[in-house]
Write a structure and sequence with these properties.
Blueprint: E1 8-20, E2 23-29, E3 35-38, H1 46-52, E4 60-65, E5 79-83, E6 104-108, E7 114-122, E8 126-130, E9 140-151, H2 154-159
The structure holds zinc ion (ZN).
The site of zinc ion (ZN) has 5 residues, from loops.
Length: about 170
């Protein structure tokens, strides 16, 4: 029976719940295929891996990762007031189908870096966008079931990713 530790390839089914407007909602979950990762390779949140250390196939664990150890706290600095003109089309109008509260828009900074932001407010002067990670400020409540554990091959450790089912094919 193999226990989860560094350099094991681990397959898990998981569900992530966060609180949203006072209710617990599912933010993410594995579908038919499990999530497959190399333990200790730094692919996942460190606390996620720590909570699975020593577990084996069939084990289920539930744990909470505080926001500051997850996707960070919600930072006001990541909220931008962008002049409405920036969103004007050739007719000097905002496309209100696209630029509306709750929509996620791809944006580019002056250096050409792409960001995703969510529209939180649209007024005559500004479009207010939040560039925080969608799960910033959220405590992450995970339920995880271990589906498979096997040693990583030397090649997988060298590449830093899993080969075969759930991983890279090359
Ligand atoms: Zn590879």
């Amino acid at each position: 029976m193999l226990l989860i530790q560094k350099d094991m390839v681990v397959s898990v089914h998981y569900e992530l719940q966060v609180e949203h407007d006072g209710n617990m909602t599912v933010a993410d979950k594995s579908q038919d295929q499990p999530l497959v990762f190399i333990h200790g390779a730094g692919m996942l949140l460190p606390e996620f891996e720590q909570n699975l250390a020593g577990k084996t196939v069939g084990d289920s664990v539930s744990f909470t990762i505080k926001a500051e150890n997850g996707y960070g706290v919600h930072d006001e600095k990541n909220i931008a007031h962008i002049p409405a003109e920036s969103f004007h089309d050739e007719n000097g109008k905002i496309d209100t189908e696209m630029v509306k509260v709750g929509n996620v828009l791809p944006m580019m900074d002056n250096d050409g870096n792409q960001f995703q932001g969510i529209v939180v407010e649209v007024n005559d002067d500004n479009v207010v966008m939040d560039f925080n990670h969608p799960l910033a400020g959220k405590d992450l409540n995970f339920s995880v079931t271990v589906a498979d554990v096997r040693p990583a091959t030397a090649e997988e450790i060298e590449h830093g990713h899993v080969h075969g089912p759930g991983g890279h094919h090359h």
